[in-house]
Amino acid sequence: MGLFSNLSFLKRSQAGEQPQPATLAVEVPPAPLEAAAEPVAESPAPAAPEPASNSEVRAQAEALVRRVVQELPDFMTVAIVDGASGLILAGQWAGHSGGAVEVAAANAEMVKQTRLAIEVLQLGPEEILEDILITLRRQLHLLRVLPTQNWLLYLAVRTQDTNLALARAVLRNMTL
Asked: Which CATH class is domain 52-172?
């Protein structure tokens, strides 16, 4: 039984279809409401930053996708995925996007499992997961971890269109 055996993937569309660029923005679930804590008289805790609204989060994610698309115009898929839930916050596909939600969830799970493996190896706090590379015969799939937002930046490119060094350099420069 494989790691992702519980995820169902959609079948690809028929080969004769013409690719159409598509953009997807998925609703971000609202942040849970927290009960107000009573103030401590001696040393009040610093106020936590207020969570960004769903529209602000979506706008940030869409802006990041646009930046990647500008840098790598020969992309297949660019998506921002919430690392905790596996939901796509923003994305753009050059052609068929079938299975994008399932792939996003699988990618988020892959990052979680890799982080667990790093903990088991006891590599220490200085070792953090930066990215995951999946090489196929004709495609490269990169998952870049954006720790400040707990987002994953997912990029898929054809090996004939983009080389690995360029794709990695572009993703390393993408910050919020």
From this structure: alpha beta
